[in-house]
Write a structure and sequence with these properties.
Distance between the termini: 39 Å
Number of helices: 7
Radius of gyration: 16 Å
Number of strands: 0
Order of helices and strands: HHHHHHH
Largest sheet: none
Oligomer: single chain
Helix content: over 70%
Shape: globular
Length: about 150
C-alpha cells in the first residue's frame, strides 16, 4: 500500500458519507451494501496497520448492517481471514491466547464463507487458486465447503 494514512482517511470519509445517506434511506439495499463495503475497507486498512481488534469490530459492524448480498458476505469472509492472519502473528498475545484467538477467528472466517456460499457465491476457482487462501486450503472445514460448492456446480 505505501500510503496507508491516505487509505485510512479515505475509508473513514467513505463510511461517513454512507452514514449520512443512511439517515435518509435507512433500509435501502444499495445503501446498506455500500456502507458495509466501506466499513470493511476500513477494516482492511486497520488490518494493514496491525490493529486487528479494530478490524474485527469494523467487520462485525459491517455485517450488523444486514446487507444480504453474496459479494458483501464474501468481502466479510476475506476480512475475517485477513484479521485471523494478523492476529495469529500478534506477538503481543501469549502463545495459548494467540492460538485460541487464531482458532476463533478462523472459525469465524469459515462460518462466513459458509454463509457466503449459501447466499449464492460460486467462484470456486478463486477459492482453489487465490494465494490469500493458501493457509486455509488444508483446513478440513474449508475443504468441506469447497467440496460442497463443487457438488453444487455439477
Amino acid at each position: 500500500l505505501g500510503r496507508i494514512d491516505e487509505a485510512q482517511a479515505d475509508a473513514v470519509r467513505a463510511v461517513s458519507v454512507y452514514e449520512k445517506v443512511r439517515r435518509k434511506l435507512p433500509r435501502h439495499p444499495m445503501v446498506l451494501a455500500g456502507n458495509a463495503s466501506c466499513v470493511m475497507q476500513r477494516a482492511e486498512v486497520e488490518c494493514k496497520i496491525g490493529d486487528w481488534p479494530s478490524a474485527l469490530a469494523s467487520t462485525d459492524e459491517a455485517m450488523a448492517l444486514g446487507a444480504n448480498r453474496n459479494d458483501i458476505a464474501f468481502q466479510a469472509f476475506e476480512a475475517y481471514w485477513h484479521i485471523a492472519l494478523v492476529a495469529g502473528a500478534d506477538h503481543g498475545l501469549a502463545g495459548e491466547e494467540r492460538k485460541t484467538t487464531l482458532d476463533e477467528l478462523v472459525d469465524k472466517a469459515l462460518a462466513q464463507l459458509g454463509s457466503t456460499i449459501q447466499q449464492g457465491f460460486q467462484d470456486l476457482k478463486r477459492l482453489e487458486t487465490h494465494p490469500d487462501y493458501e493457509g486455509l486450503r488444508s483446513h478440513p472445514r474449508f475443504q468441506s465447503l469447497v467440496e460442497g460448492l463443487k457438488a453444487k456446480a455439477r
